[in-house]
Fold this sequence. Notes:
Layout: H1 20-68, H2 72-75
Amino acid sequence: xxxxHNYGGPERRRAPVxxxxxxxxxxQKAAELAVQKMTTEVYAAVGKSVLQKVFWIVGVxxxxxxxxxxxxxxxxx
Length: 77
């Protein structure tokens, strides 16, 4: 088993010092990533909505064909 040794010397860790340019760059990258993620989520939601509507219409047409014994050409007239 490893024995942990506590460091008894002076504190050597320092808080990082960032320039205003570095902070601005980090903020810009975070904003770009946030917009990209939101855009992806919106496109996914729109695509899902469109597919649901298409499947609903296909289902209605198929049901009408089965119930009415009609062809697609007759339904679209």
